[in-house]
């Protein structure tokens, strides 16, 4: 919690200070369209609690919150109609992961073949 920036963009989205195109929401989770999509389908799934990244979430979030997050993925994939064609889920983390927004988020990408898993340039 000490490193969490309460003024990050996704915290502002959660507070309703910045609009978003919501795909799914429950007590613990919000999923919304990425503002700069990298594929025909590009949705970000975030926990509503203050967690900086996947490690922080996995260490500190309650079992209820973690279960809700995990369970939401299946529902979101169905809402996005990706269950047959497949998708990629990415959690960029820290410096080497090139994480830009310091609130844990899972990218869900799909709608076309996504190429190889990583490209280092
Ligand atoms: P990261 O690089 O941290 O894994 O990804 C951050 C993502 O947040 C980027 O894909 C970027 O397009 C998205 N993003 C940044 N600001 C906003 C915003 O204000 N609204 C939405 N919907 N997405 C944003």
Detailed description of the structure:
The protein contains three helices and five strands; from the N terminus they run αβββααββ. It has helices at residues 9-14, 54-60, 63-79, and strands at residues 22-25, 29-33, 41-47, 87-90, 106-110. A five-stranded antiparallel sheet has the order 1-2-3-5-4, covered by helices on one side. The N and C termini lie far apart (33 Å). The site of guanosine-5'-monophosphate has 13 residues, from strand 2. Guanosine-5'-monophosphate (5GP) binds next to strand 2.
Backbone CA Rg? 14 Å
- Low-confidence stretches are none
Kindly state the number of beta strands. 5
Helix content: 10-25%
The SS-based structural class is: alpha+beta
Give the helices and strands as they follow along the chain: HEEEHHEE
Individual helix count: 3
End-to-end Cα distance = 33 Å
Bound molecules: guanosine-5'-monophosphate
Shape: globular
Largest sheet: spatial strand order: 1-2-3-5-4
Give the biggest sheet: 5 strands, antiparallel
Mean model confidence by pLDDT: 96
Q: What is the fold's blueprint, element by element?
A:
Blueprint: H1 9-14, E1 22-25, E2 29-33, E3 41-47, H2 54-60, H3 63-79, E4 87-90, E5 106-110
Antiparallel strand pairs: 1-2, 2-3, 3-5, 4-5
The chain binds guanosine-5'-monophosphate.
Guanosine-5'-monophosphate binds next to β2.
């Amino acid at each position: 919690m000490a490193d969490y920036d309460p003024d990050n963009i996704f915290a502002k989205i959660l507070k309703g200070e910045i609009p978003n195109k919501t795909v799914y929401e429950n007590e613990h989770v919000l999923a919304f369209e990425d503002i700069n999509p990298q594929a025909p389908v590009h949705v970000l799934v975030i926990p509503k609690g203050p967690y900086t990244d996947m490690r922080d979430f996995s260490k500190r979030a309650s079992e209820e919150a973690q279960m809700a997050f995990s369970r939401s993925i299946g529902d979101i994939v169905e809402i996005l109609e990706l269950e047959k064609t497949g998708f990629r889920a990415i959690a960029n983390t820290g410096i080497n992961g090139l994480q830009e927004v310091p609130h844990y988020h899972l990218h869900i990408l799909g709608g076309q073949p996504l190429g190889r898993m990583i490209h280092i340039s």
